[in-house]
Specification:
Elements: E1 2-3, H1 13-25, E2 29-30, E3 32-37, H2 43-49, E4 55-60, H3 66-76, H4 80-84, H5 88-101, E5 106-109, E6 124-129, H6 132-139, H7 147-166, E7 171-174, H8 177-181, E8 192-193, E9 212-217, H9 223-243, E10 249-252, H10 258-261, E11 268-272, H11 278-281, E12 284-289, H12 299-306, E13 311-313, H13 315-321, E14 330-331, H14 335-347, H15 349-366, H16 369-381, E15 388-389
Parallel strand pairs: 1-3, 2-15, 3-4, 5-6, 6-7, 7-8, 9-10, 9-12, 10-11, 12-13, 13-14
Helix pairs in contact: 1-16, 6-7, 9-14, 12-15
């Protein structure tokens, strides 16, 4: 398995997906994990992943060479997303590993690592996970004048690269049907949908002392989350305050951008890194995730549902999730719609409980790491059920 980041600690969606895939695939495969990393991986973090791997190799990415890698990517016609994580030195290292270990299959997470498998002649799988091109396209309208040209350039490169990679891998996977529909390839229906799950034992319903009426979680340095945080504070919360002037919002998650930090006030809490995010979920009444940009399946919604929080989201998010609007979730696409949903939940405890309960059972029925990885395991195995090195 070749990953663009070491999968622990779990503060990003790709790391969450990788960690649980490694944990469950290890029951069927001997896993040789190769992870690209800019930083030294601590022994404590290694120990969290070690039980599931036959061996772990950290391939260090030199920060100083990142600029050169991006320049090389420009001449290769690659998107910057791919070039940033690629170097010829790392390619030689990975080729030596493959030559020595002779794996039966290579699994690449995200197009960021796809090039590292190009010299391998055996079967291989690419997890697109999200459609990067669509994610970038959605950021263009609200980008600054300086960022717009760069994002447009990256969008065109990603669109082409996603299509090129299709024929280079035996298997292709993706997180949701809406994401698959955005892949620019005539045979995109052949991409297998492997959704994320939720750790049910960890994200258990439980209530603490309510400190905030509303909560939004996620990596607060990730552009779609930054955008959503600003949307909630600047456009939605003022409408809620007309009815509930004391309503408080918690923005919980790692690496808050300066734009997120600036949102903090007497009614808005910005937590930064939290050791146990469950404590944040259990201290709020309503989960808010009306994402305006981004792609993929929002893990934050699955976690909130699993903890029996009623959820308010956007059509963009629910297209991938597939919950029943008005019964299992509430969907709003304007600040007024989102605010009205929050107000209706705050005003009616019985309605709040109904949406929470129905959302809880929806997540239980439809999203399981175990069932998702059974499908992935079968895809990698093909007809060969023997123990294979991955």
């Amino acid at each position: 398995m070749i990953l663009p980041r070491f999968p622990y600690p779990i503060e990003k969606g790709d790391k969450l997906r990788a960690y649980h895939q490694i944990r469950l695939l290890s029951k069927s495969f001997d896993i040789l994990l190769v992870a690209i990393s800019h930083n030294r991986v601590s022994k404590a973090h290694l120990e969290k992943v070690k039980p599931y791997c036959k061996s772990i190799i950290i391939v260090r990415q030199n920060w100083l060479s990142a600029g050169w890698n991006l320049l090389v990517a420009l001449f290769r016609g690659w998107p910057l997303q791919a070039g940033y994580y690629y170097s010829s030195r790392n390619q030689r290292t990975i080729d030596r590993i493959i030559s020595k270990e002779k794996p039966g299959h290579i699994y690449c997470q995200l197009l960021r690592t796809a090039a590292y498998a190009r010299n391998f002649s055996g079967p291989k799988t690419l997890d697109y996970q999200d459609v990067f091109s669509k994610g970038i396209e959605r950021r263009i309208p609200t980008a600054s004048l300086l960022m717009k040209p760069l994002l447009k350039f990256e969008y065109k490169r990603l669109l082409k690269y996603e299509k090129q990679l299709f024929s280079q891998f035996d298997n292709k996977t993706i997180i949701s049907k809406p994401d698959r529909d955005f892949i620019n390839h005539p045979d995109k229906e052949k991409i297998e949908i492997i959704p994320n799950g939720v750790d049910r034992k960890y994200f258990n319903p439980g209530k603490g002392v309510i400190t905030h009426e509303l909560i939004f979680t996620g990596n607060m340095g990730y552009p779609p989350n930054v955008d959503c945080a600003e949307y909630l504070v600047n456009k939605v919360l003022p409408l809620i305050h007309k009815k509930y002037p004391d309503a408080r919002l918690m923005l919980a998650g790692a690496s808050p951008h300066t734009r997120v930090k600036s949102l903090a006030s007497s009614k808005v809490t910005v937590t930064g890194w939290v050791d146990d995010i469950r404590s944040c979920y259990s201290s709020a009444l309503i989960f808010m995730a009306p994402m305006q940009i981004g792609t993929g399946l929002q893990n934050k919604l699955l976690e909130a549902m699993s903890m029996r929080l009623p959820c308010v989201t956007s059509s963009l998010c629910n297209a991938a999730l597939g919950a029943d609007d008005g019964n299992e979730i509430l969907v709003g696409d304007t600040p007024k719609q989102v605010a009205d949903h929050a107000i209706s939940l705050l005003a009616d405890a019985e309605f709040r409980q109904k949406i929470a309960e129905n959302g809880f059972f929806f997540s239980r029925r439809n999203y399981s790491w175990e069932s998702a990885n059974e499908k992935l395991s079968a895809l990698i195995s093909g007809t060969d059920k023997s123990k294979t090195t991955l």
